[in-house]
Every structure is written in C-alpha cells, then in structure tokens.
Design brief:
transmembrane helix, Type II secretion system protein, Pilin-like, 12 strands, alpha+beta, N_methyl_site, 201 residues
Length: 201
C-alpha cells in the first residue's frame, strides 16, 4: 500500500508537505533516558585511577628521557624525589661532582593533583617497601643518578598512588611503580592488580 501524506496549499496554489520533526514529548523522553544512562555509568568510572595512570606514564617517559639525555650530553643527571612536596628535581650535573653548582640547570616536576608518592596498601616489590627505595641522597632527598654511559647509580623503585588510596584502605589497585635497573638504566612501569604486580601502566 502506498503511504499518503496530508498536504497544504500555499498562497500560490502549490502543494507542500508539512514539516516533519520531533515532538516535545519525544525530546523529553530521549533526554530522560540520557540522564538515566549517565547516572548509571559515571559512578563506575574511576577518575582517580585514570589520572594516576596518565601521570605515571608521563613520569616514566620523563625518567627515560633523562637517561638518554645523560648519554647524549655526556654528564650525569640526578633525579631527587621530594616526598613532602610531591615533586621530582632534575639536576644537570655538568661537572659530575654530585653537587648543585651555580649555573647548572635545575628543573622541578610537580606530581599531578591527587597523585602522591606511596604504596597505598599494595605489597612491596623485592627492591623494598619505602615510597622511594633509592639510598643515594642529594640535599637529604632520596635520589638516583643516570651516568654518562646510560647506567643508573643503583637499582630502585618509585611507588606512586592516588590521594584516595593513600588515605583509605581498599584502593591498592591504584598503586603503580616505576622501576629503574642499575646496569642498563632501563625504566619499567608496573601496576598493582588483583593482589599482584603486572608490567605495564
């Protein structure tokens, strides 16, 4: 059967079809459904964990770049971890004496808001359970040095977690670690999931 449409006649005598669109009731129904779906989906999104993963990936990239820069420029680069300020200090030690001399470049990398140094209830890796496992110190801060040959001064781990996990239990899956190998300076990112550590962030 061929559908028929009601038409109207214009002042010139031409026929035109009525404009087709959504009624107010249909639009309100769609909007109500969207609000309901968002109400169900949003609580399931763990914003703190997504923010943590992004920050850890950025830091791992920065640390890896520091190792390459030490090889390229043929001088030591010292990373010092300021736990109280939640930041990392990069020192370009151009004369390789381990001292921050006048004129040597210093940079500070502030951790993303809601991201802190810490294990957040996760089990410790074999390298140790302190927030920063490096024993070397620069100005009293735990630190490690990338040498001109690309090696690190020692093997160690930096634990990072969300602010939520650092304050409450039950969020150990928020904990991440950046491990640095001494001989090669290799940087590895690890995630704590289902009561065990896995490579990758």
């Amino acid at each position: 059967m061929i559908p028929t449409y009601e038409t109207t006649t214009t002042a010139c005598g031409r026929r035109r079809r009525p404009a087709r669109g959504f009624t107010l009731v249909e639009m309100l129904t769609v909007m109500a459904l969207v609000v309901i779906v968002m109400g169900i989906a949003l609580p399931a999104i763990d914003v703190a964990r997504f923010r943590l993963d992004g920050e850890v990936q950025s830091l791992a990239l920065m640390i890896n770049s520091s190792q390459r820069l030490a090889v390229l420029r043929q001088y030591d680069i010292v990373l010092a971890f300021d736990e109280s300020e939640d930041r990392i200090r990069l020192h370009h030690d151009e004369n390789n004496d381990g001292v921050m001399d006048s004129g040597e470049e210093l940079r500070f990398i502030q951790l993303e808001e809601e991201v802190v140094f810490g294990r957040g209830g996760a089990d410790a890796l074999p390298e140790g359970g302190d927030e920063i496992t490096f024993t070397e110190r620069q100005d009293g801060l735990p630190s490690m040095t990338f040498r001109r040959n690309g090696s690190a001064s020692e093997t160690g781990v930096i634990y990072l977690t969300s602010l939520v996990a650092s304050r409450t239990s039950g969020h150990s899956e928020h904990t991440r670690a950046i491990a640095i190998e001494r001989a090669t300076g290799q940087v590895t990112c690890l995630s704590y999931r289902t009561s065990d550590w896995e490579i990758g962030c």
